[in-house]
Predict the 3D structure of the following.
Amino acid sequence: MEAFTTLKGIAAPIDFANVDTNQICPTEFNKVPFGDPFYPKVLFHYLRFNADGTEIPDFILNKEPFRNAKIIVADRNWGGGSSRESAVYALMFFGVRCVIASSFGDIHHNNCLQNGVLPVKLPQETCVKLREQIHADPGRDIAVDLEAQTVTGPDGEIYRFDINPVPKRCLLQGLDAIGRTLQFKSDIEAFSKKHHDEVPFLAQPGAA
Amino acid sequence: MAPARTMFEKIWDRHVIAEEEGETLLYVDRCLIHEGSRHTYDKLKRENRTIAEPDKIFAFSDHYVPTDPKQRDTGVEAIPDEKIRGMVKLLASNATSSGIHFYGIDDPQQGILHVAGPELGASIPGILLVGADSHTSTHGALGNWSFGAGASEIFHIMVTQTIWQRKPKTMRITVDGKLGFGVHSKDVILAIIAKIGHGGGAGHVIEYAGSTFRDMSVEQRMTVSNMSIEAGGRAGMIAPDDKTFAFVEGREFAPKGKAWDKALAYWKTLPSDDDAVFDTEVSLNGAEIAPTVTWGTNPETAMPISGHVPSPEDATTADKKAEIEGMLEYMGLKPGMALSDIEIDKVFIGSCTNSRIEDLRAAAEVAKHGKAKIPAWIVPGSTPIKHQAEAEGLDKIFTAAGFEWRAAGCSLCTALNGDKLQPGERSASTSNRNFRGRQGRGGRTHLVSPAMAAAAAITGKLTDVRTILQGGK
Ligand code: SF4
């Protein structure tokens, strides 16, 4: 996983609420292999492209400077719905490493953290304000500092956000979960033995 | 005395391996996957890892398999779309080479993972089950803790048989009362989501309690638990009882002999203690729930069939107003029109929400009262259900009424296998998501119960099923 420390760049405002993972990555693209050259086109495909593959010029990510967005500022309930991790790959391969929203779908939130994409939860008023500022002055950058847990708005105002210590450490160091878990190998083995001894009917499919 | 615990807390406590910085490492008893696991298997290969306990992993060909019965009879090589065929074959080769349980396209026990899994006894009370699919919450209807995860977390489970979690909050949704004539468990869960909202259960494991759920069959309970995720819930669960035990007993992967006796004794200790405290409590009167439909592009837009499409002017905030306007435009509806005036192009009865034998029986009961005016598909949730329905003669009822009887799979629920709505086409669907594009680009979805879907097939409009059932008497 690629480490996440600080990020500064263009932020694209997505003004509507309830962006589910099916909009982020329409179902038909679930089968696209990770890293496929088509991936940058997956993000919001039905909103960005007509059925014949031509661009829909009105959509924000088809406008300058948002074609180069590294950050998305969304509304509430970003990433609900399907557990597809391809929704995170769609963000990554477009170039987005951070999504700011007032709430997130649980599974997608987790999937982001597993892939080095930072989900930042800020109050709804802040999300609205940031989007208004971006619309008013599209070229200005937003900055994110994970160590300090801050977002700096286009006007320089600083907002603090919360993140749990473990995902923070993993993101900062680019660690994935397996390495961490394998440090608990002996605990897992001891637990597994106890579990199979005490509740074999749970542990073992078809226990007799 | 030990402190009172909810059922969720009992299951959680049973699976704790270790804790670190507010996160808990938990042991996973079962893992269910489908063709979408390609990203997980790719990662196993990229990182050169092996599966720790293959006998705890169950794979199903469901999302990509064709449901056209003729195509199914000719097998996987006959799937015309090369990419779809590739996905079906990829799971088969990944699953067989890694030694996990596998139910492929022509397996007699094949089905949608959340339908076939319980049929196999792969999900039983008390376990921690994780699925590569958000509707894994379905299994909680059997009294276990089941939830969905993405490719990286499934990869983690495959390699370590464990998962890291922060302890979720608990919510109890109590519904008491007898359901009215023509009202089904689907209406109950739609009414719940309309009440608490699309994100109302966020961060919570939901336990459904009360006489309405106790009165339901295990299949009906699965319909409820299935849609927990549509309320934003982390999981849904219902206390196991004699109906649950009868459902599980004798299934291939259920405990047997002495293990069954021990399991039963343990499972009876699972229900939440009387004085257990939930973080959030919600209650509804079951007797007041009517046949329900959704009008918009998330399940929160559910309302009784007697209702009317809302107007942006009713919104209390600018946000809400814009949201309603956007949904009306996408759905092609006018404010104030009666829901029962909405004309439907296609009916889909199927999906892990509503494709079990009782769902098919309820739809068949309605199909006896008329002929389908529009294309109407019946897609059983599993091959065993298909055979059972045929043994009961349901397929004959459907075909005589002009419905199309198909083979088991996810089908039009998610439009992955090529079954899809055309842009602007409108469906009455028994599935669980009415999101934009869910059933095909530009497709418009109204979520309903199987009985309501069959009623829409007969009239060509969203219709109160009670008028058909009563009228036909
Ligand atoms: S039936 Fe629909 S919701 Fe259920 S597993 Fe299949 S695609 Fe997902």
In short: Chain B touches chain A through 83 residues (CB under 8 Å).
